[in-house]
């Protein structure tokens, strides 16, 4: 843009800022446009405006301070005061070593000016005297002294300046400076910092030069004792500091560092307070450059910091100052404002005006909280809680009876804490929530529960509670919680007929959890109904179940068809054009890019990214045509080419979405999904360059309603480190508290049985960000949950795809070698994650093992163990090779695997291997599951033939996702589906191999070879056997 365009854009932006001054992104744009004009005055005005509304980082403050120093005459008292006030403002926003350093340098410069200019103003000479400057510099240095890796920058400035003063000082002044510097050294030696060795050496030199020789040894011994604790404290944290540097100060690393510090029995306030300040400052910098995850991290860090200060019983002044800083930094965080309100209530003086009232007004005037349901509710509850406690303590001038006069509640009054105002506040909060989100409060209608509880227990007006729940149920028509709460309120009023009518009406409606409605109705009838009422209820529930099951089956069939089409297109596009084969009649459905059940390379089903301990390395066949990662045309970058569209009108069509996004780039596919109470869609483009344009469609309108557009991964969480017994229902219940869950994807365990992670996708990024508060929560003692936004750029960091780079292969082992022997040798090279010692079916070692380390560098170091002597044998140690897939099983091994395997048919479309394994593990010990989507079948390998028999002999049918599973013996030669056969002729050619013992019976049968055409007619003799056949076989023995 030319200069005139820049000025016009700047003028338009200023108009927007006048109406939305708390829009952070507008201030960032303002700064950029002002910089583009190259007009220093415009830039400084933009910085000043930004700093007035938000806490800002040194990217804003450093040039602003420099401009102040130029604009004012710092040779005068007025100019120096103006600059010092600017420094105070800058330092109150975020911790910044560069700002503190400039502040110290400014103080030193003004002191030097006053010393050199005897005619300087008397007030200025007093302000910049040696004593005043010493105190001022000490105060500034103290603000950054807890930064254990950079505080030396400030302290060294102060130390060097004081040493310069000592060189020229005489008499009493000299003695005072020696005493001050000696005290400063001893204090510094007791503070953890990175260059404590240099500090101690400097103190030694200081003692030599300014203390008597007789004192030298005793002073050094005493100082050495003082510093020992600080040195140990720094050494304990050095690994985390190293991780911060290596991760480029990633926010997740800061979070882990903070969690580690808070787990200590007695957290170190000196370290932890500054660590929070550092994390907050880093998150603020990332927000400034528009990192999408920075805002949420900033809110979480501020909330944690305020909570820590409260738990640590910090001084009220410190807590109040921190809370004020937090509200300026994240004015859109309801959780931070709620903490501020509670603190003001706690320290409130009856004689003082209600400061909380002013804080509440400021919180709502920013118009940020009202945009997010999860921020509105904490603010309203905190304010309402304060008013309620004031009323209950008798500080209100209103009585309960006066508050209940009339049927209408007057509008909210903020002049005094009365009952009318309290109810009005809550009802206004409910209205704002409903305007903000169609789905309402994901935490469970908290405001409605609060106000109805007050009507029942405080006002003794239960009919008002019934009215609230009635309006709630009518508004949230698909919410089971709203309807059951309405019915419960009627039941408490003994309005049984009306409650029965509510249950009967809603039982056939499309609600988000119909089973909960049916169960509640049936329980109600058992308590209050007659036999006829119970039977009518059961009949209606049965009809409703049939309707719901039919609808779900139709949705599943449609989803399966769409998934098959998508998979076929993906598989075709994944192969280079020169290698595309003639199209087959059936193709296996490939998974989407984020599906954790499929490795990212086009691996065969014989193996995965990780080998088992029983698989020894073998060189890859030469001339293999198998595509490798990174070859052109092998993978589609689906995660980075897809946007997720939510908050769609109910009847949104694919054509409307295509019309909206057609100008963004070539659209590969649009998929609309209708959830119980929401409609969402995915729009996939052919190229990732189309995505930025697509994201500009956020807040556009379809059918008069605003829609939300974001990257799909921004609403997806990567969750790991949970207990082994956690299943799909637990995850959905745990994460469902923070928003509507769109999908939960579990990993396949066919490549590694110990994999414990899951992807949880919400319908909105805000819900995913809220769920990040589960990060660090201990579901079991010592097992902290890890929850991250599933950024595809960090896929390697959150999967075990690079496990082979951290794994060594150990061969030449003695048969007497144990895991403990290997751990003893290899733990000297670094932390070991797992040792897998290969054993035969009798439990005897096969002579090789795999050792997996936590870090790749440790695996490299472990190669030094090559040729090490263990149990009188020389072992060979090499790095594991991801290309190796052991396929050389002998016939007995294959037979043994089949003897403890079963085949499952009639799987519902889109079955996840991880979910199927969870369901079967409740019946028998499952080792491995592999699903063949094109056949709707799965091969299941169990721990033993006895476990296979247990699964085959289950007396009741196994229902999985609405489908009745058919279980039979595994008869194929491997767990893979047979290659596609032409439709002419038999269905398949049965294997021609030596029969194996059946499910541990030990009964050998003769080899039978059946021609292909005969196979189609010999169904009973060679087909898969069912449960009745298996029982007959047991009886014959």
Automatic annotation (TrEMBL):
- Kindly list the biological process annotations in GO that this record carries: mRNA processing; RNA splicing
**Which InterPro entries does the record associate with it?**
Nucleotide-bd_a/b_plait_sf, Prp24_RRM1, RBD_domain_sf, RRM_dom, TPR-like_helical_dom_sf
What GO MF annotations does this protein's record show? RNA binding
- The answer to keyword Transmembrane applying to this record is no
- Which CDD domains does the record match to this protein? RRM1_Prp24
Residues in RRM domain copies: 641-714, 715-792, 806-882
Regions of biased composition (Basic and acidic residues) lie at 1026-1037
Residue ranges of the region described as Disordered = 553-633, 969-1037
Q: Which GO terms describe its cellular component?
A: U6 snRNP
Keywords annotated in UniProt: mRNA processing, mRNA splicing, Nucleus, Repeat, RNA-binding
Keyword Repeat attached: yes
Name the source's superkingdom. Eukaryota
Where in the cell is the protein located?
Answer: Nucleus
> What is the purpose of this protein?
Functions as a recycling factor of the spliceosome, a machinery that forms on each precursor-messenger RNA (pre-mRNA) and catalyzes the removal of introns. Chaperones the re-annealing of U4 and U6 snRNAs (small nuclear RNAs) released from previous rounds of splicing, an initial step in reforming the U4/U6-U5 tri-snRNP (small nuclear ribonucleoprotein) that can reassemble into another spliceosome complex; this step involves binding U6 and facilitating the unwinding of the U6 internal stem loop, followed by base-pairing of U6 to U4.
The record's annotation in PANTHER family points to: RNA BINDING PROTEIN
Name assigned to this protein: U4/U6 snRNA-associated-splicing factor PRP24
Organism, per UniProt? Neolentinus lepideus HHB14362 ss-1
């Amino acid at each position: 843009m030319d200069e005139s365009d820049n000025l016009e854009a700047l003028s338009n932006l200023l108009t927007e800022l006048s109406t939305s001054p708390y829009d952070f992104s507008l201030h960032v744009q303002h700064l950029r446009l002002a910089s583009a004009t190259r007009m220093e005055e415009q830039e400084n005005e933009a910085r000043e405006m930004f700093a007035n509304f938000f806490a800002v980082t040194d990217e804003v403050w450093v040039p602003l301070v420099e401009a102040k120093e130029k604009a004012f005459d710092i040779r005068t008292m007025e100019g120096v005061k103006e600059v010092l006030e600017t420094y105070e403002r800058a330092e109150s926003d975020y911790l910044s070593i560069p700002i503190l350093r400039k502040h110290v340098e400014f103080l030193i410069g003004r002191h030097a000016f006053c010393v050199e200019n005897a005619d300087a103003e008397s007030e200025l000479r007093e302000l910049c005297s040696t004593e005043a400057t010493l105190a001022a510099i000490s105060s500034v240095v103290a603000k950054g002294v807890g930064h254990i890796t950079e505080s030396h920058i400030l302290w060294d400035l102060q130390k060097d300046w004081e040493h310069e003063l000592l060189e020229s000082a005489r008499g009493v002044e000299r003695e005072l400076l020696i005493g001050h510097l000696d005290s400063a050294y001893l204090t510094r030696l007791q503070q953890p910092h990175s260059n404590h060795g240099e500090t101690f050496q400097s103190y030694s030199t200081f003692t030599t030069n300014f203390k008597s020789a007789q004192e030298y040894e005793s002073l050094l011994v005493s100082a050495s004792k003082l510093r020992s604790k600080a040195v140990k404290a720094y050494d304990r944290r050095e690994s985390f500091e190293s991780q911060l540097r290596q991760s480029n100060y990633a926010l997740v690393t800061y979070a882990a560092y903070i969690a580690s510090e808070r787990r200590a029995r007695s957290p170190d306030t000196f370290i932890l307070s500054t660590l929070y300040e550092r994390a907050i400052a880093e998150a603020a910098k990332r927000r400034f450059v528009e990192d999408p995850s920075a805002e949420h991290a900033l809110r979480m860090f501020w909330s944690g910091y305020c909570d820590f200060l409260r738990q640590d019983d910090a001084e009220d002044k410190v807590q109040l100052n921190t809370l004020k800083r937090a509200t300026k930094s994240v004015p859109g965080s309801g959780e931070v404002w709620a903490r501020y309100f509670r603190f003001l209530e706690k320290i409130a003086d009856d004689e003082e005006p209600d400061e909380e009232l002013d804080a509440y007004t400021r919180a709502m005037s920013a118009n940020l909280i009202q945009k997010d349901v999860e921020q509105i509710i904490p603010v309203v509850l905190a304010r309402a809680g304060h008013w309620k406690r004031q009323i209950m303590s008798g500080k209100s001038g209103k009585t309960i009876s006066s508050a209940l006069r009339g049927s209408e509640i007057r509008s909210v009054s903020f002049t005094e804490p009365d009952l009318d105002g309290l109810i009005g506040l809550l009802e206004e909060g409910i209205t704002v929530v409903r305007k903000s989100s169609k789905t309402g409060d994901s935490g469970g209608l908290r405001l409605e529960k609060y106000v109805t509880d007050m009507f029942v227990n405080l006002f003794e007006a239960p009919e008002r509670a019934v009215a609230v729940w009635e309006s709630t149920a009518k508004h949230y028509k698909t919410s089971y919680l709203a309807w059951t709460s309405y019915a419960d309120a009627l039941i408490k009023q003994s309005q049984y007929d009306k409650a029965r009518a509510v249950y009967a009406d809603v039982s056939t409606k499309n609600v988000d959890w119909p089973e909960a409605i049916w169960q509640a109705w049936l329980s109600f009838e058992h308590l209050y109904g007659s036999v006829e009422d119970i039977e009518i209820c059961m009949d209606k529930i049965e009809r409703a179940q049939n309707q719901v099951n039919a609808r779900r089956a139709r949705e599943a069939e449609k989803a399966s068809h769409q998934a098959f089409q998508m998979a076929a297109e993906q598989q075709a596009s994944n192969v280079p054009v020169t290698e595309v084969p003639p199209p087959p009649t059936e193709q296996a459905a490939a998974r989407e890019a984020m599906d954790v059940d499929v490795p990212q390379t086009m691996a065969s089903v014989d193996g995965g990214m990780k080998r088992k301990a029983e698989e020894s390395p073998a060189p890859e066949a030469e001339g293999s045509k198998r595509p490798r990662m990174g070859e052109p045309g092998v993978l589609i970058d689906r995660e980075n080419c897809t946007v997720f569209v939510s908050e769609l009108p109910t009847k949104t069509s694919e054509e409307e979405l295509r019309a909206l996004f057609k100008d963004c780039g070539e659209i590969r596919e649009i998929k609309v999904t209708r959830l119980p109470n929401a409609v969402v869609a995915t729009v996939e483009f052919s190229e990732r360059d189309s995505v930025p344009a697509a994201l500009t469609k956020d807040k556009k309108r379809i059918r008069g309603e605003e829609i939300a557009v974001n990257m799909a991964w921004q609403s997806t969480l990567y969750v790991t480190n949970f207990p082994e017994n956690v299943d799909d229902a637990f995850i959905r219940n745990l994460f469902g508290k923070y928003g509507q869950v769109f999908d939960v994807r579990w990993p396949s365990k066919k490549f590694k049985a110990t994999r414990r992670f899951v992807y949880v996708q919400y319908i909105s990024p805000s819900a995913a960000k809220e769920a990040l508060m589960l990060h660090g929560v201990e579901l079991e003692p010592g097992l902290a949950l890890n929850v991250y936004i599933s950024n595809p750029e960090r896929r390697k960091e959150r999967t075990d795809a690079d496990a082979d780079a951290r794994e060594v292969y150990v061969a030449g082992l003695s048969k007497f070698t144990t895991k403990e022997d290997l751990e003893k040798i290899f733990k000297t090279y670094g932390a070991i994650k797992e040792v897998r010692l290969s054993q035969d079916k009798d439990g005897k070692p096969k002579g090789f093992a795999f050792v997996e380390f936590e870090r790749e560098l440790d695996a490299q170091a472990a190669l030094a163990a090559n040729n090490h002597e263990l149990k009188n044998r020389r072992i060979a140690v090499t790095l594991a090779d991801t290309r190796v897939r052991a396929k050389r099983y002998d016939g007995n091994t294959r037979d043994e695997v089949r003897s403890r395997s079963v085949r499952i048919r009639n799987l519902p479309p889109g079955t996840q291997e991880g979910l199927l394994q969870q369901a079967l593990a409740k019946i028998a010990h499952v080792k491995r599951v592999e699903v063949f989507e094109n056949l709707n079948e799965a091969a299941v390998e169990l721990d033993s033939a006895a476990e296979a028999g247990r699964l085959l002999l289950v007396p009741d049918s196994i229902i999985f996702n609405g489908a009745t599973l058919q279980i039979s013996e595994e008869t194929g030669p491997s767990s893979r589906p047979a290659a596609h056969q032409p439709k002419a002729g038999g269905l398949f050619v049965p294997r021609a191999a030596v029969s194996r013992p059946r499910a541990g019976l030990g009964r050998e049968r003769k080899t039978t070879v059946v021609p292909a055409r005969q196979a189609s007619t010999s169904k009973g003799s060679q087909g898969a056997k069912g449960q009745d056949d298996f029982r007959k076989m047991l009886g014959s023995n």
